């Protein structure tokens, strides 16, 4: 049988999907054991006991100076920034994307501009944002929004333009005005794509968040990682990275489930 | 009334002449089938009737009034594909026309108005044979069922003219025969004129009152650009088919006709 036609069974699939994780974990443990046996105080690859100790300190014991649970304070601070930035980006992308996708005049006005803006490296704008908006929350949220909005706009505009022309014509013969067609035909059909495009932009959004927090902040997951970097505190950095990954994967999973639950037809169309 | 008058219509794309000097009168309640080889401009002609494209020269009148330059609720359409909205259920697909006509901003109906619209839509859906699938999405329907849905969706608007662009071309023969019977009944029962583009001669002669062939009369390579297609045959079906009447000679030829139509 050809390789392109042989498929794994469900047990095999589970084993295969877990194995890369296990390989990475095993490689780490091996490296850690080797280094710790040479120098029990090695900080680069701490063992699991070191992790447990650090996690316990960050999660369950209030900080001696501020009295706060460090991980939770950082998580809340970061998620607030992330979701504020993503919410602004989503709203802008939806409105501008639909305008570009549906109205030839708006397309002529905005499409080239958005295409150009999306090529500006957002991190290069970070100093400008800090200068103009100060070092507070606004500049960090703005960086996330600026970073992900243009690409989301282009993606949604593309989705709106690629709706079959027949559907729009049909809606016109059913008496729809531009507004009604936007509301009842285009919007519902690009919302599933909006969720997908959001999922794809979660990675960049986290990147911009951590970059902004690394430079100036008083709390936040990115702030903490860059703070403890000075002490080579890998026992803190590794759990933080794992926690960020878990948060991102969880958001991605929830968004996808929400799409299937709210727009059941989008899953049916995919399977056709 | 819904008579169509086409006067000296030309359609050109840049240098390419697609249709040349088409003149045609389509009487009220006619069922016209447009046939012809691929690329002869029959779909372009249908799009001009729809308002999706405009003639380069000439006029198209509906009941003596020039056609609006964009599609509207007086002309319904069924395409071969993408005619129904994938994000709406069968009921939602038929309801949406009513909702957009009645509610200018919300494009949705509520309460009693919605109840009435749902009843009307449900009756129409039953009539096209989809009564069992009210809450299914198009992706869950077969091709034939999707086209039945597209017909119901167009008919709830009570259009003056129904335009069909190879609507049954992708269906297998058994399903096609069934939907032909439905199409005849709908034409008998609804006060509309039908213009249908088709590749299938048998379909054209089964359904239409009149079969019109488009053809490029000059089709040598050096002539292709500068000569478009024109009407080469205009065949009235005999014995004549009349909307709402059984055929005189073979009463069952045109499908069952309700009394008093």
Alpha carbon gyration radius of chain B: 19 Å
At the first level of CATH, the class of the largest domain in chain B is: Alpha Beta
**Alpha-carbon distance between the two ends of chain B:** 15 Å
The CA-CA distance between the termini of chain A, in Å, is: 26 Å
CA-based shape of chain B: globular
CATH topology description of chain A: MetI-like fold
CATH architecture of the largest domain in chain B: 3-Layer(aba) Sandwich
Q: Give the DSSP E fraction of chain B (strand runs of 2 or more residues).
A: 15-25%
Low-pLDDT parts of chain A are none
Tell me what the structure shows.
The complex is a heterodimer of chains A (272) and B (261). Chain A has helices at residues 10-38, 48-59, 70-102, 104-117, 122-133, 137-161, 165-173, 178-215, 221-228, 234-262, 264-271. Chain A is an all-alpha fold and 272 residues long. The longest helix of chain A is centred in the last third of the chain and has 38 residues, at 178-215. The model of chain B has no long low-confidence stretch (mean pLDDT 88). Helix content of chain B is 29%, strand content 23%. Chain B has helices at 42-50, 90-102, 111-127, 143-155, 173-189, 201-207, and strands spanning 4-13, 16-26, 31-35, 57-62, 65-66, 75-78, 161-165, 193-197, 210-215, 230-236. In chain B, strand 4 and strand 5 form a beta hairpin. In chain B, helix 2 packs across helix 3 (111-127), helix 2 (90-102) runs parallel beside helix 4 (143-155) and helix 3 (111-127) crosses helix 4 (143-155). In chain B, the strands form two sheets. In chain B, strands 6-7-8-3-9-10 form a six-stranded mixed sheet, sandwiched between helices. In chain B, strands 2-1-4-5 form a four-stranded antiparallel sheet, with helices on one face. Chain B folds into two domains: 1-74 and 159-261, Rossmann fold; 85-158, no CATH class. Classes of the chains: A mainly alpha (272), B alpha/beta (261).
Entry summary:
The complex is a heterodimer of chains A (272) and B (261). Chain A is mainly alpha-helical and 272 residues long.
